[in-house]
Amino acid sequence: MKKRKSSLFYGLSLLSPPPVLENADPQKIAFLLRKQWTLYSVTPMYKFSYGNLKAYSRLLSAFVAAEKQKGLAVEVGSDLGFKVTLSTLLGLKGTDQDQVAILVQIASRSQLPFENAEDKVVWSGWFCCVSGDELLESVPEDFTCLSLFLANGAESYTAIVGTWFQKTFDCCFSRLTISPLNLAWMAVMWTGYKVDSHMTTTELVFSVPCTPHSLDISYAIHPEDAKALWDTIQKTPGEVTQEEVNLFMDCLYSHFHRHFKIHLSAARLVKVSTSIASAHCDGNIKVPRSQTGPGLL
Hints:
Subcellular location: Chromosome, Centromere; Nucleus
Keywords: Centromere, Chromosome, Nucleus
Family: Belongs to the CENP-L/IML3 family.
InterPro entries: CENP-L
Number of strands: 15
Largest sheet: 11 strands, antiparallel
Distance between the termini: 14 Å
GO cellular component, one term: nucleus
């Protein structure tokens, strides 16, 4: 589904799967699904090299171990009881010009005396390029643009990994939040995507500030009703405009007010959950479906 320019940041729109997805590793893609990911923005990384991923894995392993042991020196390459692995995620980019995505995993080594005992992944994160061709053209050659980072696991590991990347490649991590406008766009685009089976209720959660505690209002909509509404609004198949998003939300507000006499337009949209994916204003997203997951990611 294409979109016209809006404030919606790249990477969270449900587009048709790009041609480069044909090169994707199905096992790695499956690993990214059904997990909640926390979003961060990352400035371009200086002197990052795809040819040094194994060396980065060893250095990051030692750094994580030292941080976990409160600053004690750790020899690179020693047995740490866990390992850090950096690898490429082929296929997860919007255009051929985008940088190849990178997967970072921290796994605890199995203590079982079996040769085939598998390590358990305790934390994972991945970088991807979602900046668009215009920004990439302005980035100097010595810099690698992987502007979106998604993390799943303990925040302590996220902080340690982020610190190592910032020190090593002179970049900066910052937490991403999702505005109500962007959440509305996601609700519309995910509603407009056809799902053949396993449809779940579309839910919009609104926050109403009040004293002494805030109040959350959950607005549940049957997915077929939401899709029917969008079909009456959308003018050009495969394209979304800001005017159509506004009209879709206004229709939902009017329906809710007619039944409950509450003006949801005065509240703040904080969460969207559909059959395709869910997103929270705190910067957390989850993609549960294997069929649509690659295209969304």
